[in-house]
Amino acid sequence: xxxxxxxxxxxxxxxxxxxxxxxxxxxxxxxxxxxxxxxxxxxxxxxxxxxxxxxxxxxxxxxxxxxxxxxxxxxxxxxxxxxxxxxxxxxxxxxxxxxxxxxxxxxxxxxxxxxxxxxxxxxxxxxxxxxxxxxxxxxxxxxxxxxxxxxxxxxxxxxxxxxxxxxxxxxxxxxxxxxxxxxxxxxxxxxxxxxxxxxxxxxxxxxxxxxxxxxxxxxxxxxxxxxxxxxxxxxxxxxxxxxxxxxxxxxxxxxxxxxxxxxxxxxxxxxxxxxxxxxxxxxxxxxxxxxxxxxxxxxxxxxxxxxxxxxxxxxxxxxxxxxxxxxxxxxxxxxxxxxxxxxxxxxxxxxxxxxxxxxxxxxxxxxxxxxxxxxxxxxxxxxxxxxxxxxxxxxxxxxxxxxxxxxxxxxxxxxxxxxxxxxxxxxxxxxxxxxxxxxxxxxxxxxxx
Length: 449
Prior knowledge:
Elements: E1 10-13, H1 21-36, E2 43-48, H2 53-67, E3 71-77, H3 80-89, E4 94-98, E5 107-114, H4 122-132, E6 147-149, H5 153-162, E7 175-179, H6 189-195, E8 199-203, H7 222-231, E9 235-239, E10 246-249, E11 255-256, H8 258-271, E12 278-282, H9 287-295, E13 299-303, H10 307-317, E14 321-323, E15 329-331, H11 340-354, H12 358-361, E16 370-376, H13 387-399, E17 405-410, E18 416-422, H14 426-448
Parallel strand pairs: 2-3, 2-4, 3-6, 7-8, 7-9, 12-13, 12-14
Antiparallel strand pairs: 1-5, 4-5, 9-10, 10-11, 14-15, 16-18, 17-18
């Protein structure tokens, strides 16, 4: 069991262990020390989102890495998938992202990528944690690491994104609203889409260090929905704080989640004879996605929640397309991690190719009614196998239709219990969700007083 690493790196509340300057400095030293034992010359690339705490942790990481004799390449605010790409193309040994993704400004985190642009293996995470237990030893003055700033990093990634679609694709007919969540895509995404010809109406592109994900972006798309309808746009695109998630809004103002995005990408590729293998989703993927893909003759498998599990299954099966309903879209033909901008570009390409509206394009995948509830907790965790809770879940499952499902799990990134109920009957979904949420809240209260 890892002590610090969770579903997506190390994440938590700023100032609360382990998210303290002392720990982050030691973390940088630990990673740099491991590299120094395997290579005489090594360098690490660091990017971040737009949280004000990024300055603090960026400096702490630099100090720790320099103390270990590791050179540092700084790129400033950049989307997480950009760091994956740049780590590989700039021949860095490891890429580090300072971000808490979709979380509020009060949180931050550290994500790692390997030299090939993939997330670190659990074995490497274990090695880092072992190194953290050792005393920090500073290299001699003449072997300390140096720090360099890569000024053309945004341009490099913008050109990469533009190269991800067919060279003859032209988006001049598209009007799009782009919500950058006041996060890491604020200076990247609008340029990518406009340079490809689209008319771009950007919103939430003025980060001030405090407003990342603040009632905007992929988790809060209400303003985007309103803007799309009011401006008569063809679609809306919403990213999360670090740009590895994307949620869309169709021309009628309706939200399109990651499941529907996966379906539309797969369908477009099948129709153009460019699809092979199958699609990987998670336990949270809507049953409608599975049914719709089967109709296209596409295999579909589920993994545990988390894009790292999706990635592992794709690599195991030698497939290329997968993702989560939260908006993580992975296309291994293009990038080595979930990429919100690339996901949006693939949908825009399908729109132009089909001549249909986005509302029409999504109709091939009717979704089963689904309700996802996040239940916050403070203090000790309750057991999800609690006898009373287990019995009530069994009772609820007995009421569901053949395609109905209940999933209950702890979040790997926040102090939340996530409850998902899916069924053909929306009223029953809502009733069962309310009942089980009330019970869980009662058990939390009993556990923590």
